[in-house]
Amino acid sequence: MRTADYIRLILLAAIWGASFLFMRIAASEFGAINTAFLRVFFGFLGLAFILLILKSSVKFEGKFKHSLILGVINSGLPFFMYCLAARWLPAGYSAILNATTPLMGALTGFAFFGEKLSTRKWGGVILGLIGIMVITTVGESRSNDETIAGVVACLMATGCYGVAGFLTRSWILNKGGLDPKTVAFGSQIGATLFLLPFFIWSTTTGPSIDWLQGEVWASILAVGIICTAFAYILYFRLIADIGPLRTLTVTFLIPPFAVLWGYLALGETINEGFIIGALIVCVSVWLVVTPGKNTAAMKSEVTK
């Protein structure tokens, strides 16, 4: 990996770490469905503006349908799941559960894309499950129905991310590739169209909402334009440059940023269960995403 790739990973982690804070602020006031829709909608508008400013031509080259579907899997569904979780979990908890994305990516690759899992990676997956159990059950009365629901929602979101990473490689990269800005733009169109009916249903049949809240709208605009539009250009560029599994290592760096932003903005704190579980999850992800000695040696021989 180049120095520029590391810089983009850190920047992406800081941005996505802040997204959990913004979703927590907005979802508690506007609701999960509305927040998820507004995030992808402003993500779509932000990308459209970026493409207009850069005078970039949008050519899907026969991959428009796949870009739309990727938007549902990689944005629409997981954003809704995280908005649900944001109503029950502190930002740091959602972020460390988001770090299980490489684990889900490994399981998805094994189950559906012919990827092999070594003993080391299987150990990482099992250890990751133990870490999740510790986060959920150890500490200050964290084992309750809402916490369990929040954890399940986060894991469903990471499962979507795991699938989307490999589908991006299969549908986009292995078929000639596509400009990352175009993939990001198409994905937000798909996510917006997917969530639009639910948004209409929520606003017409759900409880009344005070829409005149400046702080909440600031969070919506930030999570839509910065954490979605700008971040997804970085994300798809990284997938194209360093591959899906390496790109998913960004989740290592997201939790510290999420905890920091949550503490600074909302005064959120963490307990001993979170710290222990987070360390276990980080070790498990490290086992999954780093090559073993045999793999490294084989690569060294190939490059000699």
Low-pLDDT stretches are 295-304
Average pLDDT figure: 85
Largest sheet: none
Percent range of helical residues: over 70%
Subcellular location: Cell membrane
Pfam family, one: EamA
Keywords: Cell membrane, Membrane, Transmembrane, Transmembrane helix
Family: Belongs to the EamA transporter family.
Write the layout of secondary structure elements.
Elements: H1 3-30, H2 32-53, H3 64-86, H4 91-98, H5 101-112, H6 119-137, H7 145-171, H8 180-205, H9 214-242, H10 244-247, H11 254-266, H12 272-289, H13 293-303
Helix pairs in contact: 1-2, 1-3, 1-4, 1-9, 1-11, 2-3, 2-8, 2-9, 3-7, 3-8, 4-7, 4-11, 5-6, 5-7, 6-12, 8-9
Short précis:
The chain is mainly alpha-helical. It has 13 helices and no strands.
Give structural notes.
- By secondary structure, this protein is an all-alpha fold.
- It contains 13 helices and no strands.
- It is globular and about 45 Å long.
Q: What key phrases describe this protein's structure?
A:
mainly alpha; globular; 304 residues; 0% strand; 13 helices
